[in-house]
């Protein structure tokens, strides 16, 4: 372990878990005027998102000022799981997810094998604003576990098999679960809580 002045190096670093609301960019600067960003949540100076969660997605986002920790968490070769709860349009059966488990071709790349299961009797508080929902088409919640994180990957995977994503919530990163962390709130944790 790296040392600084005789103390474990990580004691001088910040590790934050945040329940990101819908519509917030995973960065501190606006791309266009009026956009919501991480700047409104009073994070300590110097931290940045370890991996991205797109504006339309919700849930667990890790922020840190520890570059090596960021690499260990986000690079696919380290195989740190990211678990998503996904509400899709339609009523898929388990067999519809065969390609998720073997690798799915999306444009110019093939995804690594993912775990997926249909969530029975699953409920989650409604989103604000509400999702786009068509009355004559059912929706289904699934749980997807990956350890890579290409741009909008889970959304693209769902669309590729014909079940568009309506809502996406990241529920777990590494060993840390979203739990009861309120939307829009954050807390400092130890790195071992995430990368045990």
Description:
The radius of gyration is 18 Å and the shape is globular. The protein has helices spanning 67-74, 98-102, 153-160, 191-194; strands at 3-4, 7-8, 15-20, 48-49, 58-64, 82-89, 105-106, 109-110, 115-118, 139-146, 165-173, 176-177, 186-188. It folds into 2 domains: 12-75 and 175-194, Alpha-Beta Plaits; 81-173, Alpha-Beta Plaits, CATH 3.30.70.1560. With 196 residues, the protein is of the alpha+beta class. The strands form 3 sheets. Strands 3, 4, 5, 6, 9, 10, 11, 12 and 13 form a 9-stranded mixed β-sheet that branches. It has a two-stranded antiparallel sheet with strand order 1-2. β1 (3-4) and β2 form a beta hairpin. The longest helix has 8 residues, at 67-74. The model is unreliable at 1-7 (pLDDT under 50). Helices cover 13% and strands 29% of the residues.
pLDDT < 50 stretches: 1-7
Fill in the CATH topology of the largest domain: Alpha-Beta Plaits
Class per helix and strand makeup: alpha+beta
| Overall spatial form | globular
